[in-house]
Write a structure and sequence with these properties.
Strand content: 15-25%
Distance between the termini: 35 Å
Bound molecules: zinc ion
Helix content: 25-40%
Shape: flat
Number of strands: 10
Number of helices: 6
Length: 333
């Protein structure tokens, strides 16, 4: 059998798993080794997840969506139709079924590859990443409704649901979480309340601020920016507020960081994408904190609650042939 070694095995091998999927064989090797606890690079960033843009960062950069399923759906439909025309369990039916499975696996591989590339880039360049705590299941709930109360715009909602499920947000968040922990950073999830409707300049909350899907224009102070960038700025601010609350041991208000009580439009400096670093810990909290916190603060623990020492054991999976990343990555022990 042909074998391609996609990466070197580092450390002591603890466990080897051989698996088969769609006619391809995979060897996953789990190893254990000591790694120096890396110091995180870069600062804090907020991320707004979306359908038009997969992820928008509070510094203005964004990642276009891959829409893996959408790209392959015509081919998938044809293959499924061809399969339905064959006599069930015949040899031709088996061939057609293999074709359908192959397309499904290609969709999954492309999506995973994209998520891994994006989450690696973000986690290597930031010490703190704030993300909305999205309930994808609620967001993509069927719009059909009941026979007494049929839903509105069912077709449009069904298209949006497909697009949401095609993004892989939950997997993206999981990858960001463990990759940040590997790099010495943190992931902070914040409640998504009002993040798309709050003006980052004056704090005015109104759905009228969102003129179109893509454009944000504050009805109070006239601040204008791309709506996704505004969302990401608000997520970052909410993350800072959450962190400040953790430091102070305070109970976090549900909308912490998405609300400013006493700032008027008059003292409103125009925020440029570069000026976001000026947004410090949420104004709702009395005691502002500086970022990054020194290594002495109790916050420098990984998201799994492990105190980070100078040396820690990193359990690592490496998947050998065909795929350069394993979906079952290890956690720092
Ligand atoms: Zn405003």
């Amino acid at each position: 059998m042909r074998y391609r070694n996609s990466r070197d095995v580092l450390g002591t091998v603890k466990n080897v798993t051989v698996s088969q999927s769609c006619g391809k064989w995979y060897v996953s090797v789990q190893t254990e080794r000591e790694v120096e606890q890396p110091l995180p690079n870069g600062g804090a960033v907020g991320i707004d997840m979306g359908v038009a843009r997969f992820a928008t960062l509070s510094d203005g950069t964004f990642y276009a969506p891959l829409n893996s399923f959408k790209r392959h759906q015509t081919a998938l439909r044809r293959a499924q139709q061809a399969m339905s025309r064959k006599t069930k369990f015949s040899n031709n039916w088996k061939k057609a079924r293999a074709k359908v499975q192959k397309i499904h696996s290609r969709i999954g591989n492309a999506r995973r590859d994209y998520l891994h590339k994006t989450s690696t880039t973000i986690s290597q360049n930031h010490a703190m990443v704030c993300i909305e705590d999205l309930q994808v299941r609620n967001m993509s709930r069927s719009a059909a409704g009941s026979s007494e109360q049929p839903g509105k715009q069912v077709r449009a909602k069904s298209g949006l649901n497909k697009a949401i499920l095609d993004q892989g947000w939950a997997e993206f968040r999981r990858q960001l979480d463990y990759k940040l922990a590997w790099n010495g950073g943190h992931l902070i999830a914040v409640p998504p309340r009002n993040t798309s409707r709050t003006c980052p300049c004056c704090g005015h909350v109104s759905s009228a601020n969102r003129q179109t899907q893509a454009r944000f224009e504050c009805v109070e102070c006239g601040f204008e920016e791309n709506a996704d960038v505004v969302g990401a700025i608000n997520v970052l601010r909410a993350g800072h507020a959450r962190l400040a609350c953790e430091v102070n041991g305070a109970v976090m208000p549900s909308a912490a960081g998405t609300h400013r009580s006493d700032s008027g439009a008059a003292q409103c400096p125009r925020l440029s994408a570069a000026g976001i670093s000026g947004l410090q810990a949420g104004e709702d909290v009395n005691e502002p904190i500086s970022w990054p916190p020194g290594p002495a603060t109790p916050l420098l623990r990984s998201s799994r609650g492990v105190i980070v020492h100078r040396h820690s054991i990193l359990m690592e999976h490496s998947l050998l042939p065909f795929v350069s990343f394993s979906s079952t990555a290890g956690t720092p022990a």
